[in-house]
Amino acid sequence: MVKAEEILNIFPGKLRERFKEIANRADELQEIRFSVRRPVRVVLKNKEFFLDLSGKPIKSKETCWIINEKEIDEILNYVCKYSLYAFEDEISQGFITIPGGHRIGLAGQVVLNSENKVRNIKNIRFLNIRVSHEIIGAAGKILPFVFDKRLFNVLIIAPPGCGKTTMLRDLIRQVSDGSPNMPGFQIGVVDERSEIAGSYLGIPQNDVGTRTCVMDACPKVQGMMMLIRSMSPEIVAVDEIGSKEDLEAIKNVITCGSKIFATIHGYSMADVKGFKDMFERFIILHKKGGICRVKEVWGEEIIWCE
What we know:
Elements: H1 4-8, H2 13-16, H3 20-23, E1 29-35, E2 41-44, E3 47-51, E4 57-58, H4 69-79, H5 88-93, E5 95-98, E6 102-112, E7 118-130, H6 143-146, E8 154-158, H7 164-177, E9 187-191, E10 212-216, H8 220-231, E11 235-238, H9 244-255, E12 259-265, E13 281-288, E14 291-298, E15 302-305
Parallel strand pairs: 8-12, 8-13, 9-10, 9-11, 11-12
Antiparallel strand pairs: 1-2, 1-7, 2-3, 3-4, 5-6, 6-7, 13-14, 14-15
Helix pairs in contact: 8-9
């Protein structure tokens, strides 16, 4: 459950008052978006609202709060403890993870290094606060298909916004903790975008289980092999695979004797042909009635459908 204090603590004193009403609806809150000289927007239960100057969510633009450069700078400096330089590495990746596992996406003027890679972002004028919501028990329905006398390599398939990461996070937690019908397994998570564990200063803010270690903000391909060499995981978990390099890294993980849990963008088995040989269980998600649900479970053929 997201606490109101976690939302309020994102903002400096002068602006904090404006977010009291929204913070009291923290369990419904998904995003707060700031774009310079444009209306402040919030997403509550998949519905977008504007904020007025008192912090009330409204539908009309006419009386909404238009945020300026100074206010965006105040928020960013407060989040970075008034030392943007100390957060330069995170800023160069386009986001900052904060206590509670929430993430602030950043956009502005990109600064490149001599190798034409992003070194920093300056004149940051766009912020997107994405509120982290754990759903404990989300993977309960698929657990019997993941472990049945033995553990399977699992790929979770879904289009954007259908709960892939939420499902993966809870699967990691449950398999790591174990149950009367399943032993707990050692899991290594490569959390490239800090979305699975939501680590802050290296400490997971989300519950990823008793036997789980996390390689935070690390590229997937490098992280998978680093974990294999350093932590001897029985399972390696990664989010949003898709490249040829990902495929080769997964092959290496399996060759080294570890299982793999992963997610991928897609709608059906037809979208994951290149990865089909690497996995034994395929969990397909979709959104029905505004709720993310398990649509199908596949092995060599369909095992279960809604």
